[in-house]
Amino acid sequence: MELIAKRPNGTKDMIPAEAHKWHTVEHIASETAECFGFKEIRFPMFEETGLFKRSVGDTTDVVQKEMYTVTAKGDDSFTLRPEGTAGTVRAVLQNGLLNDALPLKAYYIISCFRHEKAQKGRLREFHQFGIEMFGSKSYLADADVIALAQTVLERLGIKNTELNINSIGCPQCRQKYQDALREYFSAYKDKLCDTCLSRMEKNPMRILDCKSEICSDIAKDAPIILDYLCEECNEHFENLKENLTERGIKFTVNPKIVRGLDYYTKTVFEFVSNSIGAQGTICGGGRYDGLVEQLGGQPTPALGFAMGIERLLLTMEAENCEFFAPKTCDVYIAAMGKAAEKKTVQLVNLLRDEGYHAEYDVMGRGLKAQMKYADKIGSKFTIVLGDNELEKGTAKLKNMAKGEETEITLGDGFIDRFSDMLIGDMFDGSLGDNLF
Ligand code: ATP
Ligand code: MG
Predict the structure, then answer these.
(1) Which residue in 33, 181, 237, 241 could disulfide with 107, CB within 3.0 to 4.6 Å?
(2) Three-class DSSP category at 302
(3) Do 273 and 372 lie in a common domain?
(4) 8 A C-beta contact, residue 274 and residue 319
(5) From the CB of 283, is ligand 1 less than 6 Å away?
(6) How far apart are CA 140 and CA 103, in angstroms?
(7) Ligand 1 neighbour 284 (Cβ under 6 A)
(8) Is 334 within 8 Å of 294 (Cβ atoms)?
(9) Closest ligand (CA of 279)
(10) pTM, rounded to two decimals
(11) What is the pLDDT of residues 348-403, one digit of tens each?
């Protein structure tokens, strides 16, 4: 078969047979966020290009190399969101949400777009579950956000992860640190890649995040930010570490984490999965105390994280985590003849109104083929309706797992009788664990 169009490089289809895996992650993540007091926010898939340049930062890989920027006739320049924080902050400000009770807590499940080299765990369209919290400068907020990320991972059944944390200070401490970095890297001017050379003046911390082997080798012995933290940043970091320890959250301080986005201040953190190889960062986050003001709001401390859903799924598959069982058909009604067909549609509608997953033949198949199909889709019960059954007003309800048949009266009260039988059969395990 010659396809007219193929899916773009770096994108994936979610096919119906995989839907239960996505639903597992989306459901557990959002329920957990709700437990921590977060509510869902939705915002556009594209924003004015300037929003990302300003927030993510124009010396970052994301802005320099990875944005999908579009202009339609006569319009300004728009960019498909490469991440969720910028859009959230913009939406929070535009809707005046910071005038309400603080902290403001929002979560999202979104698609993101980055023009990267596609590989396992690195896509051009990917999905994030993310949360943002506005209004608190306390280390308790940092600890709570990290605890939320950890709880999501735990509830998904993911075990083999490490939490790395660091503090990248505030603009004050960073100034001294950047001077130290410039001095260190200036000795390697002839070896650094062109991008890093251009970052030397404006943002030498970005060199620490360069993926080129030579640059990251040079960066190994670079000065570390923790030696340059001001008193306030240092105290914040010490309190955070103490609080995480009190909560029993294990972490490693990794002074090399700077994160790929410019807006971070103070705390940054990553959860890395050891089960999926090179693209192992399944969650990245931190504080961004300057961003709200930078985007035109009142100075407001804020923080958040984002998890890559595809990487979570890869990890769950690698660790054999359990997914919600895919929903299967509760009852399939096989019909023979025109009169039976009419009654079947009527019964199926009653069942569906009651919330059951009920099906019947829409393919024009014979009885045998209908039963084969019912078996193939794993229907828990089947009913066969023909002229005989219509005449008697009763039919046989078959529990497919047990092979047992019971008589069921079709007239008034059918749904109640069906529910009673289902509940009766529910306790012997033959119906599986995905009944409701
Ligand atoms: P990486 O270091 O792997 O490039 P990042 O620092 O660019 O990640 P963030 O911008 O912090 O990542 O995004 C948060 C999370 O989104 C990452 O931890 C990862 O799980 C996921 N993610 C980022 N980029 C991609 C991508 N291209 N494909 C799939 N998932 C991604
Ligand atoms: Mg990246």
Answers:
(1) 33
(2) strand
(3) no
(4) no
(5) yes
(6) 12
(7) yes
(8) no
(9) 1
(10) 0.92
(11) 999 999 999 999 999 999 999 999 999 999 999 999 999 999 999 999 999 999 89
The string of DSSP letters for 83-151 reads SSHHHHHHHHHHTTGGGSSSSEEEEEEEEEE-----BTTB-SEEEEEEEEEES--SHHHHHHHHHHHHH
CA dist 314 to 18, 88, 266, 276, Å?
12, 27, 30, 7
Q: Tokens 């933290």 label which residue?
A: 229
Residue 114 Cβ inside 6 Å of ligand 1? The answer reads yes
Give domain status of residue 87, yes or no.
yes
On whether both 154 and 259 belong to a single domain, the answer is yes
- Check if 304 has its Cβ closer than 6 Å to any atom of ligand 1: no
Residue pointed to by tokens 């009651």: 354
Tokens of 394: 């009763």
**How far is the centre of ligand 2, averaged over its atoms, from the C-alpha of 240 (Å)?**
26
Q: Torsion angle of alpha carbons 165, 166, 170, 173, nearest 10°?
A: 170
What's 63's DSSP letter?
I
Q: Check pocket membership of 23 for ligand 1, CB cut-off 6 A.
A: no
- Of 109, 346, 146, whose CA–CA distance to 243 is shortest? 146
CB-CB neighbours of 54 under 10 Å = 18
pLDDT grade for 2, boundaries at 50, 70 and 90: confident
Tell which of 254, 284, 318 closes a domain: 318
SS3 9: coil
Tokens 């994280």 belong to residue: 305
CB atoms within 10 A of CB 119: 11
Q: Is residue 181 part of a domain?
A: no
Q: How confident is the model at residue 292 (pLDDT cuts 50, 70, 90)?
A: very high
Model confidence over 84-138: pLDDT tens digits? 999 999 999 999 999 999 999 999 999 999 999 999 999 999 999 999 999 999 9
Protein residue with least CA distance to atom 16, ligand 1: 308
Q: How many domains does the chain have?
A: 2
Domain boundary among 318, 347, 376: 318
Residue 380 domain flag: yes
Residue 355 CB coordination number (10 Å):
9
Provide the domain limits for residue 373.
Answer: 331-426
- Structure-block tokens of residue 251: 């972490």
Report which residue type is found at 364.
G
